[in-house]
Specification:
By secondary structure, the chain is mostly helical. It has helices at about 30-35, 40-50, 55-65, 65-85, and strands spanning about 10, 20. The chain has a single domain, classed as Arc Repressor Mutant, subunit A (Orthogonal Bundle). Helix 1 (about 30-35) packs across helix 3 (about 55-65) and helix 2 (about 40-50) packs across helix 3.
């Protein structure tokens, strides 16, 4: 039986529109971080997410063939993280005027 190559897709309502492996919630950026940032092998990442090794390499290829898109995605991700952190109250914000936890 012939195996189909991994198809990288983008859907606005899945993973904030980041490119991912079709039919999965495994993003191209996530695979790149695990293989190139954490030092896991393509086979280890494939096992972790029940993918084919070819899927992992397809994601890595996509990442490196679309550097501007991936840089924009990373910038947007960092902006969302910063916005979320700014919207999250600190421990001091959770104390009432008597110094007791709310």
């Amino acid at each position: 039986m012939a195996q189909r190559a991994a198809r990288i897709v983008t859907t606005e309502d899945v993973l904030h529109g980041e490119p991912r492996i079709e039919g999965r919630r495994v993003g191209v950026r996530q695979i790149r971080v695990l293989v190139e940032g954490s030092g896991l092998s393509a086979a280890e990442v494939a096992d972790r997410f029940d993918l084919r090794v070819a899927d992992v390499y397809a994601a890595l290829t996509y990442y490196h063939e679309h550097p501007e898109e991936m840089a924009a995605i990373e910038s947007e991700r960092e902006r969302r993280i910063e916005t979320s952190a700014a919207d999250t109250p600190s421990l001091a914000d959770l104390e009432d005027e008597n110094g007791e936890d709310v």
